[in-house]
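Tip: read the tokens left to right.
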């Protein structure tokens, strides 16, 4: 009764959501701050003004939402928080202004970046070539590769946890394949500069799609959206779940040249003609119209992250530099599973991966100052053991 392809599936495992007690959740890279007040108002007003909108299909092309996303990117330069700027108002640096106008036809919007990634995998990678990706990266990439029967060429990271870009390019050329990676990377937190990505794309095959996943870019990374004027094969994946405080809403998008956007749209329309629901479109539009609220949230997260990295380093932990809303750290003399379990006993959830090579590390999402102070207290107990 079960197909052979079903038997070979290896599904993605999300961060746990236990119900046995109330936990401080620092295990799923969720934003600790609520959406902008305007989003809450827009969501309520959408239903209150015209309840029949819930009985009708939404705009199948999300035209208004895509226009709002494009406008937000043009206003912010594509990134909300370049780095920790404690005590200062977060504003985009002048050099981050996009050297062209992002237009709605350069945007595809879907139900979270995971769904968007699924369509990207189907549209641009196939079983004839081995897809190149880093060894330790977003764990949904190998899941989709398996789902669509796409062979992969997994490239080990450098000793300092950075991407081995030279080897990735070499393998991609040898395979005649595309490349995908998160920038900044997950779960390591390290990122490439825009110039480093530019050099990679210049060296890569121009007839293969080059995918950069910028889920965490707003917490201190450098967006590659300005590179879209140079490279027609570049696809940038983004999400509302992290810096836009909307993991519960499920909304993601890509930025690419219109031809590639149309390709992804064709894939979507071959599976589900109405992917983004009407309420999500209204809420997403309101979020895009209030970017500086989210810039301040990203600034607070980045500052708290840097403070937490200092705390861990001062207490003897090995911590990888991070440009994200999480840190990847190891306590010498204690395995990652034990660290995870000990912290969980005190009512705090962090993420542990049993994957060989990173099994001694835990990934810790950055929460509010109050949450992080509680975690520091719990970690202090570990130090005394």
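Filled-in amino acids:
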């Amino acid at each position: 009764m079960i197909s052979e392809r079903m038997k070979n599936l290896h599904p993605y495992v999300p961060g746990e959501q236990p119900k046995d007690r109330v936990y401080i959740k620092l295990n799923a890279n969720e934003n600790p701050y609520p959406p902008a007040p305007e989003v809450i108002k827009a969501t309520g007003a959408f239903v209150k003004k015209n309840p029949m909108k819930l009985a009708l299909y939404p705009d199948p092309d999300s035209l208004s939402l895509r226009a709002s996303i494009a406008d937000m990117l043009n206003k912010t330069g594509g990134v909300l928080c370049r780095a920790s700027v404690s005590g200062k108002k977060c504003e985009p640096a002048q050099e981050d202004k996009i050297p062209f106008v992002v237009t709605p036809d350069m945007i595809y919007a879907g139900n979270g970046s995971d769904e968007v990634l699924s369509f990207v995998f189907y549209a641009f990678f196939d079983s004839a070539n081995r897809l190149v990706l880093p060894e330790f990266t977003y764990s949904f990439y190998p899941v989709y590769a398996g789902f669509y029967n796409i062979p992969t060429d997994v490239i080990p990271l450098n000793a300092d946890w950075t991407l081995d870009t030279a080897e990735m390019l070499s393998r991609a050329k040898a395979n005649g394949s595309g490349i995908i990676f998160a920038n900044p990377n997950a779960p390591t937190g390290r990122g490439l500069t825009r110039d480093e990505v530019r050099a990679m794309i210049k060296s890569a095959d121009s007839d293969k799609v080059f995918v950069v996943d910028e889920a965490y870019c707003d917490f201190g990374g450098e967006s590659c959206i300005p590179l879209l004027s140079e490279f027609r094969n570049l696809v940038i994946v983004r999400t509302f779940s992290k810096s836009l405080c909307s993991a519960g809403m499920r909304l993601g998008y890509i930025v690419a040249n219109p031809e590639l956007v149309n390709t992804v749209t064709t894939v979507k329309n071959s599976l589900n003609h109405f992917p983004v629901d009407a309420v999500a479109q209204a809420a997403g539009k309101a979020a895009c119209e209030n970017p500086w609220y989210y810039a301040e949230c990203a600034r607070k997260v980045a500052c708290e992250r840097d403070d937490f990295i200092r705390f861990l380093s001062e207490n003897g932990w090995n911590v990888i530099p991070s440009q994200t809303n999480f840190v990847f750290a190891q306590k010498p003399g204690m395995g990652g599973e034990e660290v995870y379990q000990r912290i969980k006993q005190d009512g705090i959830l962090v993420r542990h991966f049993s994957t060989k090579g990173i099994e001694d590390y835990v990934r810790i999402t950055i929460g509010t100052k109050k949450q992080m102070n509680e975690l520091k207290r719990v970690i202090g107990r570990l130090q005394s053991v």
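The CA atoms of residues 339 and 362 lie 8 Å apart. The chain has a mean pLDDT of 92.
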